Amino acid sequence: MADVTRRLFLRHLRGTPTTWIRHSVRGRVRHEGVGQSFWYRPLVGVLSEVPVDDRELPLLFHARTSDFADVTVQATVTYRIADPALAAGRLDFSVDPHKGVARGRPLDQVATLLAELAQQPALDLLARVPLAEALTDIATVREAVSAALRDEGRLTDVGVSVVSARVVAVRPEPEMERALQTPTRETVQVEADRATYARRAQAVEQERAIAENELQNKIELARREQQLVEQHGANSRRKVELEAAAELAVAQGRAEREKVANAAAAERARVLAAAEAEKERTLTAAKAEGVRGIGLAEAEAEAARLAAYRDLSPEVLHALALREVAGQLPEIGQLTVTPDVLTGLLGRLSR
């Protein structure tokens, strides 16, 4: 909508880059074009404002297919007013000169015309095709609608140009749509079940592979443990053998040393025995020689003594014998001489 400003008895209109404005006074065009800005008198001025920008017209209508199924068509038509002068002459695009407000609704007429022109080829096409084809072949419906709008003369007569026509969707009723989706849903479900079963089978296969791998690992561990036990037994046996060999060598060395020691001890004992025997023999000989010498000396002394006693008188001999007897008597602290003792002593002396 143009911007209208009041100044006393004049009005100033300032348009936009997307609106085409015509200002007429008494049937004569004073201003015309896009982006106009001018002063005018509202009492004598006639204004027409035509939008020239692209506009979207959403469409939603029902149709019936050849197999009597109701469908809903959702489309969008993009159009513009290509000839605003022609459109201003055919449709009421007039603007109140005092307020700048549109007096009519010409764009609603254009929208109604476009909706009717777009629906007709879509309805005719869908009536000739079954539901499955209508739902899958949307491009054919779009081409039919685009061709019908492009070649329509009534749009050219009002200066309207269709930029594009798009069919967004063709949808059946909810019950029919669910019925149509059932085979696909079941197929998808079958595929999903197949994928699930395949995944489960793969999972089972993987579990089997994992179990087999674990079993192989256990077998390998058991084999290695057996090898370890065998190696440990071999090592223990080898250790025992080495210890036995070492003990045998030690025992043999000890026996050899004991044998050598025994031999040395025996030799030493033999030498000591021989030396002791030689010593005893020497001592015995020396002792015998000494005894023999002593005996000879004692015999010679006894003989000399006897020879000395042979020449002595009996009184001297008695005195000597008495002295000898006195030397053999024990020590006498007190001596009591009785007649019996004296008699006996005298008798022994006389003998």
Keywords, separated by commas or semicolons:
10 strands, alpha+beta, 21% strand, 351 residues, 4-stranded antiparallel beta sheet, 62% helix
Order of helices and strands: EEEEEEEEHEHHHHEHHH
End-to-end Cα distance: 205 Å
Task: Tell me the major beta sheet.
Answer: 4 strands, antiparallel
Strand order of the largest sheet: 4-3-6-9
Structural class: alpha+beta
Helix amount, in percent?
Answer: 55-70%
Radius of gyration: 81 Å
Number of helices: 8
How many β strands by DSSP? 10
As residue ranges, the low-confidence spans are: none
**What would you call the shape?**
rod-shaped
- Average pLDDT rating: 82
Strand content: 15-25%
Question: What is the compact description of this entry?
Answer:
With 351 residues, this protein is of the alpha+beta class.
Describe the structure.
This protein is α+β, with helices and mostly antiparallel strands. The protein has 8 helices and 10 strands. A hairpin with a 2-residue loop joins strand 1 and strand 2. Helix 2 (106-126) packs across helix 4.
Write the layout of secondary structure elements.
Layout (H helix, E strand, L loop, with lengths): L2 E5 L2 E5 L4 E7 L2 E7 L2 E4 L4 E7 L3 E10 L5 E12 L2 H7 L3 E2 L10 H21 L4 H6 L1 H13 L2 H5 L2 E13 L1 H137 L3 H15 L10 H12 L1
Antiparallel strand pairs: 1-2, 2-5, 3-4, 3-6, 6-9, 7-8, 8-10
